[in-house]
Amino acid sequence: MSCPIHPKPLKNKASLLFTFFIKRNSWLNGLFERSYSMKTGKVNLPGLEIVVANELPLVKNIMVDDVAKYPKNHLLHELLEPLLGDSIFTTNGCTWRKQRDLLNPAFAHARVSKVFALMKQSTDDMLKRLDKVEENSRFDMDAEMTFVTADIIFRTIMTAKLDADSAQKITAAFTRFQNQSLKISMLRMFKIPLIFSYKERQRQQAAAEIRGALEKVIRPRYDAVTRGEETESVDILSSLLLTRDPDTNERFSFKEIVDQVSMLFLAGHETSASALSWAFYLISEYPEIQQEAYKEIQTVIGDREIEAKDIKKLSLITAIFRETLRLYPPVGFMMREAAEEVTLRDKIVKIGKSVVVSPWLIHRNKDNWDRPHNFEPKRFLEEQKTPLKSKYLPFGMGQRVCIGASFAMQEAVLIIATILQRYRVEAIKGFEPQPVGRLTIRSENGIDVKLFKRKK
What we know:
Blueprint: H1 16-23, E1 40-45, E2 48-53, H2 56-65, H3 74-84, H4 93-103, H5 109-114, H6 116-131, E3 139-140, H7 141-158, H8 164-189, H9 197-226, H10 236-242, H11 254-285, H12 287-300, H13 315-327, E4 334-337, E5 342-344, E6 347-349, E7 354-357, H14 359-363, H15 405-422, E8 423-427, E9 435-437, E10 441-443, E11 448-453
Parallel strand pairs: 2-7
Antiparallel strand pairs: 1-2, 3-11, 4-7, 5-6, 8-11, 9-10
Helix pairs in contact: 6-7, 6-15, 7-8, 7-11, 8-9, 9-10, 9-11, 11-13, 11-15
């Protein structure tokens, strides 16, 4: 079988004018063949100079060894600030460290295990929706993954169920935010005046819609804590509301809570929705692997309901998701900037200039992976023979590794196993998803499949 879909790279590096037009919709469109094999690369735009680091020792240096020299890029903060505020996704230095320390209890292993029941409520409701889908009809799995992951985030963070109307409004707002953010960033990179200010207004309005929906749920809980009425519960918001700064004994302010919850919503919903959508595309395209996964479910679980203790036993399903993250990492590029002048191989990077580490390129480099464009989940079942840490970074690397990685893995295995236990997922002949790289890597035309209920 041919490799799963990925944008065909250009033969040669594009001109500036061509780059502007092809990258306005997706930064993946600007990649050329040597992008997938180069050790370092340089992109010179009128308003931005970028060095791309692909060589693994350089990546480790940037992400782990000398991380203080490569803080998060200020342009990324400016781009995401309307939605995320000052959250751990974009802050640096002491501010980031303090935020991370305050957030760690919310994602401790024990708490991740506790929220399994809330995740399960969401997947039970997901099955009710899927049971209404007409068999052998075209079904957009991308839309469903967007809904269920948003619902899971709402329940596990705030113990609030997300209704279909609210989910549609929030996801539509985030789509607008992504689209306009890419266009605004391209205008800035090419030093084009923001004469089309309506794009920025649309972006700000979309961010305000999302934050407004979150604030409605957070405000009563925040006020209850202020009055001394909130007691600890299993959800993540409870941990955030009750955690105190050990130095000042102060709690997060309301804005700080909204900032961090907005970040968790983006990281825990959008990235998971992206990865799970691609997982079901791959599962539908490789029926023999799907059948093996179903056999694993039957062996471990049978026809009973999935329990928290089952997750670690579903090794093939875990490997399927990990391989999906390799081929379609939700965050395809990670932007840093040089805090001091540095040299990356033969490239001098001056203070304030941008450095990019790209999981998309590193995961598809033939020097790092055998048959890099192939879908081969079993490579992750042999991890003990082939260490993957240095070349596999869907959740980042080093001290800034994603705080919700364990949460995301538990959620993904639960969703995949829940659906495959009840349904066979079939590809639609002639349908090809179209990967686009914006803030995350999604399919521009969804992930269309057919669902067939399994016979018991």
